[in-house]
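Before a colleague's protein record goes any further, I have to sign it off. Alongside the sequence sits a line of tokens, each denoting a local backbone shape. I want your independent view on whether this chain really folds as the tokens say. Where you disagree with what is written, explain briefly why. This is what I was given:
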Amino acid sequence: MLEEARERWPGRASFILAAVGSAVGLGNAWRFPYVCYANGGGAFLIPYFIGLFVLGIPWLAMELGMGHMMQKGAPQTFASMGKKWEWAGWWQVLMAFMLVIYYVVIMSWCLGYMVHSATLSWGSDATGFFHDFIGKTGGVEVTGALQWPILIGLLICWVAIFFILHRGVRRVGKVVWFTVLLPWALLVILVIRGLTLDGALDGLNWYLEPNLAALLKPNVWVAAFGQIAFSLSVGQGVMIAYASYLPKKSDVTNNCVITSLADAATAFFAGFAVFSILGFMIFQNPGLEIGELSESSIGLAFTTYPTAISQMPTGGQIIGIIFFLCLWTLGIDSAFSLAESFITAITDKWEISKDRATALVCSFAFLAGAIFTTGAGIYWLDIVDHAVGFYGLLLCGLTMCLVVGWVFGADKLRCHLNEASDIKLGKWFNWFIKVVTPLAIMIPLVPALINNIRTPYNGHPQWALLIGLWGALVGTLVLAFVLAHIKEKEEAAK
């Protein structure tokens, strides 16, 4: 794609909304509040914001800056730093593609729960209802049947993503005014409703009361830095692709800070919506402990929260619909940004129209996502998410820091960022990219790797981990090298 013919965002505000929408996803609504509570409550905010400034913002600035400088998606951005590094960009976009395959399945769950909220179908046994809804089997070795409602919801989600993306970022720039602003409005409604319920203040106390002793535990810092990496849509080629459509004279650093702080603020605010409701649930069930409510962030969203909704004196159906609509709209921005990462990489390298590339990516992702709509789907989702959404993301980020910092030159990037920015970066930024941020990436990465070598992840059988975890990492890496060595159409014709 020639630089002068490259698409452009309709305006700076549209880009910022798109970037914020990509960063603010499903994890903001359920993962951050759960991780915060489980790791010291209000004290967790200390390592979280330290992680934001030593890991999140430098990493995001690096990706936005490189995409803006090269005016290309992730593979061609890496190729511009040296042809032998193109594989690293393909590895990023392949991780994004694998992530979006199962991510959209969770969005399909949200669609189904929106429908069931109208009658509060889960009744008093939300856990049993969720297991029946996804057709959960006894283990990953028992595939079970396709869950047709989830598969239909999956199709609806991918059709929506196709129509958002196939006309390029100018359409995306218009869509995000709705898909980003609506969930914020819905979160406000949920917080207001939650605060009117008995026990809400107790719930907020559990959420925010600082347990300073937790700061002495290494796992709290691991969780904080892992949450930062998980939340900002870095390491997946998304922000590189989005920034490549910015005009040459754009204040990238300022956009980076706005995006990072908006993401953190949304996650923090979502905790008020979640824990005010949980406080009400404890009030309704004396003797129940907050720690007994959920063993996972997904459980918090699809079992604990619905149970609390069903116990509301009035308006439970409406709150249920609003909550799951909020989750879906939070998810759609992240989903189409992940798909766009791969689509941009394809259209940058080969002469293929945006329409066709989008259709191919969406169609293949829908078909591949079918495995996650089976009874064993939740087990495979857990395994692949750990491979892609954790290891893959961190390894891709580490690779980018090393290539940009030590091969391309962090100072070149810093000078580019400073050209049009109100926020001037000093030479400290060079050392953040070269040393500090890579070390920060290692904080969650190394302990998890040691633990997973010693103990099978979440008790899954070794054969499933070999396929879904280590196989996903190695397989995408091999495919990245293959894609990097396929010649562009112009080269092949010579």
Remarks:
- The chain has a mean pLDDT of 89.
- The chain has one domain: 3-485.
- The first helix runs from residue 12 to 23.
